Automatic annotation (TrEMBL):
It comes from Anolis carolinensis (Green anole). Residues 34-475 form the Aminoacyl-tRNA synthetase class Ia domain. The gene is IARS2. It holds the Pfam family tRNA-synt_1. The keyword Protease does not apply. One of its GO terms (biological process) is isoleucyl-tRNA aminoacylation. This is isoleucine--tRNA ligase. It is an enzyme of class 6 (ligase).
Amino acid sequence: FGWGLVPGSPRIPKSMNVQVPLYPKCGFSELYSWQRQRKTKKEFCLHDGPPYANGDAHVGHALNKILKDITNRFHMMRDYVVHYVPGWDCHGLPIELKALSECEEDDLSPMEIRQKAKEFAEKVIEKQKSAFIRWGIMANWDNCYHTFDKKYEAKQLHIFHQMFDKGYVYQDYKPVFWSPSTNTALAEAELEYNQQHVSRSVYIKFPLLKPPPKLSSVIDGLPAVNLIIWTTQAWTIPANQAVCYMPNSEYSIVKCTNTGEHFIIASDRVQSTAALLDTQFDVISTFKGTDFENGMCSHPTIPGKQSPLLPANHVTMSKGTGLVHTAPAHGMEDYGVASHHQLPMDCLVDEKGRFTEAAGSELQKKAVLDEGNEAVIQMLHGAKNLLKEEKFVHSYPYDWRTKKPVIIRASKQWFIDTANLKSAAQEALKKVKCVPASGMNRMLEMLDRRTFWCISRQRRWGVPIPVFYHKTTGNPLINKGWWCFFKEGLTYSIC
């Protein structure tokens, strides 16, 4: 070849255009229609998982399309009639962001944003399509599908309504992955994990306000006792609603040899915590986690606020102190504890990842991943409840589009109840032949651990969730009469 790939670049050089004159001579464009007219009862259909309409064709596209083309041509040579309709995924945040980056205007209306995004996607589709045709891919290029076509959208909305009727779609207020860099909720599939993310981890004192009745005989004779908790997300402390313990684990009341203070931590974590704090702990008494029942702590940054001691099975002894700070608005397990014990789930963080007015004047409008986190640490220090701060390198979720860290934030979203679909999906998957076979186990595990799928996004360019809301209560309106009206409107707009 007279061209090659530039090292480190996935883009295909423009010099490949020298081969364009070869295309009409080879008759690639007629091959698909010719083989469709053959008289044979054997049919092979390849469903095209579509490329995303947000950039130029690259090596990844080439690998995908050429492998599919090899498969199709192999079946054609075995006397099959091949059915292959290519398509494009045309909605989503990357297209919206790229379309907006090309606009000089600010404060565009939702309709204007959608029009700009559609025009951008159409432009990209034509560029990618011409590249795929130039590569000689055998396909039905005259009848491609696009996910922004009204007929395609109408089918999606019809399925949404069917799933809602069967109880598979619901709205709820719960913690979800949230991207402050794009101001929207994200699904788990939209995350990538940075293995070298550095957090400011802190060891914090939660003063024991009301000793558990079963421990009163030991604690009543002691000066102030504090529970020690560890977290890598100090900014979530203002939203704390409880401290969780493992019921079946053993805990210790210890005395610090350096300061004379008394602490409670898991027995398995006594030595490691003492070493980290550069001190020694003398064990005064040990007890089972169940003895924590009906105990109460003081909140470490909010005077007068109380945090109950509650049992939870997600508490581990592999790191930390065996006691877990619980903020229902910012953790999946925390949300489960709060739901069971009917704890408040107020979120103190807005869609831009900043503290709201409800967090107090010291924190309001500060970004939780930056100056807001620093402010909370300083508040802990000022309240004399900060024992230690250190850098902690760990795996942390990032928005795969912006490459910036995400948070977990409670908000009202729409979900698919994948827990109730799991069994049927797993049985269907077992009928699929996976190459390599290891892919089967990976997909089965993914289905097993995912209990819900967040499908709503706080953006403009996508298939709308077909719901009206009461202007006073905010409750969603979905019923048979509404759907008939909506379906008629869809039919009219398609025509």
